[in-house]
Amino acid sequence: MSRKRENNRKNLLGNPWVVHQHTVAQSYLRFFSLDRAHVHRFDKSTPGPWKRLPIQRVAAVNGFYDFPASTWDCGQLIELHLGAAVDGPSPAVVSALVERLSSIVRAMRGSNPPLLSDSLVADALQRIVMLSEADRLQLARLVASQMVRTPRGREGQVAALHDALRSEAPEIEHALREALGAEWEKAFALFCMLDGLKKLPAEFMRYQFRFFFDVDGGFLTSDHPVVELDSRHPVARTHRGVYMPLTPQLVLMIDTESKLPVEWMTPAPYFFVDLLNVHQFVFANRFVYGRGPHAKTAAYWELAKKRRFEWSFAS
After folding, report:
1. Taking the model in full, what pTM does it have?
2. How far, CA to CA in Å, does 264 sit from each of 114, 129, 131, 161, 260?
3. What pLDDT score was predicted for residue 315?
4. How do residues 196-241 score in pLDDT, each as one tens digit?
5. In angstroms, rounded to a whole number, what is the distance separating the alpha carbons of residues 58 and 68?
6. How far apart, in Å, are the Cα atoms of 102 and each of 107, 214, 265?
7. Where are the domains of the chain?
8. Is 129 helix (H, G, I), strand (E, B) or coil?
9. Nearest C-alpha neighbor of 26 from the set 59, 52, 50, 75
10. What are the C-alpha distances in Å from 238 to residues 96, 128, 241?
């Protein structure tokens, strides 16, 4: 281990295993930054003004992948793996996709008459988007990684483990605690994370990919950016599926109700933008991120606290 990395692990209490490890890819958060170095953050635990912070300092948890008793630098190995498989290659795929979809939108706006001037036409219009198999797989990996690598994702994995053990074999849970100590839950969660990174992309590849494009760039993200919806909403045009904002302009929806091997692009109605943003406030572990303070923050936060998904406030 390098001296710099070893020093980074030390804090004032002398704990050698405290180091910031990212639970949301920095390369992903740069899409939600105006200067690619800073992002605005809303804190659910202490609601107040949005704060502009360096991307390196957000969506990071001390020692999230590490084990104090191990001589292996587990955290570095995991971050290297995530960087090679997801964080490194995915930005180029997303950037190219946004440019292609932007050109479609520009063509729609520049047509005579401009298609986007009529909301009924714009809402109904869909365009086929052709993705290569490699690009499709990379997007599936990005979504899968952000489902399983976050603190909320880990909480779900550990909760499922406890439920299974307590109902089926409580003595095994006790034995694991005795044998492995306090880190046994983290070890299980990391195995689940790596298993999910392997299996989920292949599962996602079976379904239709649908892209929602917002010309105004109104989508927010969070420290748990993947939203799973299990119901339809007729106004917001949602389906049962997995949603992730790729940029402020673009949301990827993996339609788990359709196995058609095609991709679609749909201009996003403002109701849909509000729907996804309220869900980001609800399901964020703690923080919501954006390019700047959002004008509808107060409305989103009030609805999120009540877990009410209604759209009458949208203007």
Report:
1. 0.83
2. 20, 5, 10, 37, 10
3. 33
4. 999 999 999 999 898 988 888 999 999 999 998 876 655 445 567 8
5. 23
6. 9, 10, 11
7. 39-306
8. strand
9. 59
10. 25, 18, 8
Q: Which amino acid is at 192?
A: C
pLDDT at 25 exceeding the cut of 90: yes
How many CA atoms, within 13 angstroms, populate the side-chain half-sphere of residue 216? 12
Nearest in space to 211 (alpha carbons), one of 178, 251, 246: 251
| CA atoms of 199 and 193, how far apart (whole Å) | 10
Rounded distance, CA 40 to CA 34, Å? 10
Q: Which pLDDT tens digit goes with each residue over 35-55?
A: 999 999 999 999 899 999 999
Residues 6+ positions from 11 with CB-CB distance below 8 Å? 18
CB 213 within 8 A of CB 249: yes
Q: What is the SS3 assignment for 210?
A: strand
Rounded to whole angstroms, the Cα distance separating 24 from 246 reads 12
Q: Write 26-30 long-range contacts (CB < 8 A, 24+).
A: 26/55, 26/56, 26/59, 26/87, 27/87, 27/88, 27/90, 27/91, 28/87, 28/90, 28/91, 28/142, 28/146, 28/221, 28/225, 29/55, 29/58, 29/59, 29/221, 29/289, 30/55, 30/91
Under 8 Å CB-to-CB from 200, ≥6 apart: which residues? 140, 143, 144, 147, 148
| Type of residue found at 73 | D
